[in-house]
């Protein structure tokens, strides 16, 4: 994987999301935020996540979808269970992934972060292919961006969020990043 000047990563499928805007002039991306998502909750596969991040989720398709279809959110990337990567927002733009958030005393984490969603849930582990793809993606981002920290969504919004959850293997993930 390689991050291009246009903010798009080669090796990722690009599905543009409208749920983003321009970063403030001179804003530097220093934080990588790790999320997890499954739609419906606890179910993997299908196109619901892509539909959700592109405002095309059918609220009648599942009772949970009726609760969230109105939301306008997207991470920069999604890493599927098989390790495939989908990009929704160029990294030079601000994706709407963190919501109300604070990292090391600084609020509005969307302003200075890149969000990576892993297809997963708080009650299940992640796949080896996801860790490998996450590490390759994070390395490609680190090669270009001045990333200085990596945090869980639960770290930046602890009252609202629990992801990526207790089954995310931080030690393994960080060991893969150290080897790249």
Helix vs. strand class: alpha/beta
Mean pLDDT across the residues is 96
Radius of gyration: 15 Å
* Estimated helix fraction: 10-25%
Largest sheet, described in full? 6 strands, mixed
User: Would you state the CATH class?
Assistant: Alpha Beta
List the helices and strands and how they pair.
Elements: E1 2-3, E2 9-10, E3 13-14, E4 20-22, E5 31-37, H1 48-53, H2 63-68, E6 77-79, E7 85-87, E8 93-95, E9 102-103, E10 106-107, E11 113-119, H3 128-142, E12 149-152, H4 153-156, H5 170-179
Parallel strand pairs: 3-7, 5-11, 5-12, 6-11
Antiparallel strand pairs: 1-2, 4-8, 6-7, 9-10
Helix pairs in contact: 3-5
Descriptive report:
23% of the residues lie in helices and 22% in strands. Strands 3-7-6-11-5-12 form a 6-stranded mixed beta sheet. The protein has a two-stranded antiparallel ribbon with strand order 1-2. A hairpin with a 2-residue loop joins strand 9 (102-103) and strand 10 (106-107). It has one domain (2-35, 73-179): Peptidoglycan recognition protein-like (Lysozyme-like), CATH 3.40.80. It is globular and about 40 Å long. It is built from 5 helices and 12 strands. It has helices spanning 48-53, 63-68, 128-142, 153-156, 170-179; strands at residues 2-3, 9-10, 13-14, 20-22, 31-37, 77-79, 85-87, 93-95, 102-103, 106-107, 113-119, 149-152.
Name the descriptors.
single chain; 180 residues; alpha/beta; Lysozyme-like; 5 helices
Give a quick rundown of the structure.
The protein is an alpha/beta fold.
């Amino acid at each position: 994987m390689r991050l291009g000047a246009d903010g798009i990563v080669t090796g990722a499928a690009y599905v543009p999301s409208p749920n983003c805007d321009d970063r403030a002039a001179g804003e530097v991306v220093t934080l990588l935020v790790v999320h997890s998502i499954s739609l419906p909750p606890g179910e993997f596969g299908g196109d619901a996540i892509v539909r959700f991040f592109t405002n095309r989720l059918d609220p009648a398709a599942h009772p949970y979808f009726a609760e969230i279809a109105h939301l306008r959110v997207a991470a920069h990337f999604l890493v599927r269970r098989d390790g495939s990567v989908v990009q929704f927002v160029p990294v030079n733009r601000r994706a709407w992934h963190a919501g109300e958030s604070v990292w090391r005393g600084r609020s509005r984490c969307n302003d200075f972060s890149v969000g990576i969603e892993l297809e997963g849930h708080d009650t299940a582990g992640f796949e080896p292919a996801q860790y490998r793809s996450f590490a390759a993606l994070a390395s490609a981002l680190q090669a270009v961006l001045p990333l200085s920290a990596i945090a869980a969504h639960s770290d930046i919004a602890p009252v609202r969020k629990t992801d990526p959850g207790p089954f995310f293997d931080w030690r393994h993930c960080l060991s893969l990043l150290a080897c790249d």
